[in-house]
């Protein structure tokens, strides 16, 4: 495990907060340019140039933007920022999973919150797991993020920046790829993005939508919406809107097959029970065998892992083009839950398999750096303690 503490950058006093350009829609970008006197007939061309520099080349300074005249570059520099959140720590797991702890700009009360972003390399893909909120209000009993009381929505800029930072660190901008002696197959290190980090994306609908539009934009980061998955614990009224307005793939954190059990594990179920949730799933636009909903199911010893649960699960999902992802529970300090035994998971998987769902068990990744599902934030708290002892102590740990 490697820990890099970039305290200089993360702890630097926030620069006199200039408005940021990252995260703006194309329209708002043009309006920002109008604000510094760019004439109307140039606004579209200039915002296209900026867009390409920010999202296609990863520029972090206006100086780099060689096809923009010096006077305009100066004006941009005086008026706007391209800053991304600071990286407090980067951890690399024995299995290649990477996790970044990011420190955000101060909020109105001057507090600098932190979030985590995880990169999971696999043979045929690289998945970036991004956060949509600081903390989470849902308090699912098995999820560590839910024990964090402090919650705020991330801005579109903070959501998009997670992708930019991952590309910075993975050397995925054109300059880095050109210099890479072992370029990734297909030319991409990050092939998929999942909104499965901290937070409930459908409680931060507008910012998530704006961020997805930027991440999917063909002249920028250019990750197709079919390669972006939004995971929700089941905010039912927002699911049709997500289908119509965000248009990514959908994942549902189901985790139980009866309301009685789901009420306990995912308290949001008391508001939106299983039948309502699955009705919204059935109506999700564009479903087919090639475009399925992923149902996530965390395996909790003695709670939801009986063969009867597996059979009920299959029955519930009947008629929905679905993938089932069985997730071995990832423990965290203080949790009351335990992961199901391996034989129990296999028995469950076999029932699900026989019903026609392929390869359903998700291998835990990055457990050694607390980067696996539901472990986010815990490591940040640990690191904060180390930080107080200084970077050397953290490196030795
Ligand atoms: N709020 C959204 C996004 C978070 S996604 C949602 O609930 O879908 C995080 C995924 O990891 C969810 O499926 C969540 O249920 C699962 N998860 C949470 N804690 C976990 C743990 N300790 N072990 C395994 N999976 C967990």
In one word, what is the shape? elongated
Number of DSSP helices? 14
Question: Structural class, from helix and strand content?
Answer: alpha/beta
How many whole angstroms does the radius of gyration measure?
22 Å
Low-confidence stretches: 378-397
E-strand count: 12
Question: How far is the N terminus from the C terminus?
Answer: 10 Å
Q: What about the largest sheet? A: 10 strands, mixed
Helices and strands, with pairings:
Blueprint: E1 2-5, H1 7-11, H2 26-35, H3 40-55, H4 70-79, E2 86-92, E3 98-103, E4 114-122, E5 125-129, E6 133-134, E7 152-153, H5 156-170, H6 174-179, E8 192-195, H7 205-216, E9 228-232, H8 239-246, E10 249-253, H9 259-265, H10 274-282, E11 293-299, H11 307-316, E12 322-328, H12 342-354, H13 378-388, H14 391-396
Parallel strand pairs: 5-8, 8-9, 9-10, 10-11, 11-12
Antiparallel strand pairs: 1-2, 2-3, 3-4, 4-5, 6-7
Helix pairs in contact: 2-3, 5-7, 11-12
Bound molecules: S-adenosyl-L-homocysteine.
């Amino acid at each position: 495990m490697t820990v890099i503490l970039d305290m200089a950058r993360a702890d630097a006093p926030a620069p006199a907060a200039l408005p940021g350009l990252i995260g703006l829609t194309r329209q708002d970008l043009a309006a920002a340019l109008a604000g510094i006197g760019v004439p109307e007939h140039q606004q579209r061309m200039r915002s296209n140039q900026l867009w390409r520099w920010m999202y296609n080349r990863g520029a972090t300074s206006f100086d780099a933007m060689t096809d923009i005249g010096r006077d305009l570059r100066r004006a941009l520099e005086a008026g706007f920022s391209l800053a991304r959140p600071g990286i407090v720590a980067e951890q690399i797991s024995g299995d290649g999973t990477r996790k970044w702890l990011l420190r955000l700009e101060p909020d109105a009360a001057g507090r600098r919150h932190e979030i985590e972003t995880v990169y999971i390399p696999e043979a045929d893909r690289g998945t970036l797991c991004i956060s949509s909120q600081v903390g989470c209000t849902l308090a699912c009993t098995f999820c560590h993020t839910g024990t964090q009381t402090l919650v705020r929505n991330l801005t579109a800029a903070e959501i998009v920046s997670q992708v930019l930072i991952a590309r910075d660190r993975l050397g995925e901008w054109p300059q880095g790829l050109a210099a890479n002696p072992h370029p990734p197959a297909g030319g991409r290190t990050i092939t998929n993005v999942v909104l499965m980090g901290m937070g409930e994306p459908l409680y931060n609908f507008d910012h998530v939508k704006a961020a997805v539009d930027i991440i999917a934009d063909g002249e920028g980061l250019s990750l197709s919406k079919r390669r972006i998955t939004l995971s929700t614990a089941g905010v039912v009224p927002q699911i049709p809107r997500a289908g119509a307005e965000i248009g990514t793939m959908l994942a549902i954190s189901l985790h139980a097959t009866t309301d009685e059990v789901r009420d306990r594990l995912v308290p949001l179920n008391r508001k939106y029970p299983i039948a309502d949730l699955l009705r919204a799933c059935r109506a999700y636009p564009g479903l087919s065998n090639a475009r399925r909903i992923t149902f996530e199911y965390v395996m909790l010893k003695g709670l939801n892992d009986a063969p009867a649960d597996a059979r009920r699960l299959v029955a519930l999902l009947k008629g929905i083009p679905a993938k089932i992802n069985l997730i071995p529970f990832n423990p965290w300090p203080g949790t009351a839950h335990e992961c199901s035994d391996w034989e129990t998971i296999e028995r469950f998987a076999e029932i699900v398999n026989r019903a026609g769902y392929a390869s359903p068990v998700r291998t835990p990744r990055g457990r050694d750096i607390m980067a696996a599902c539901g472990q986010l934030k815990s490591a940040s708290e640990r690191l904060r303690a180390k930080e107080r002892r200084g970077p050397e102590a953290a490196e030795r740990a």
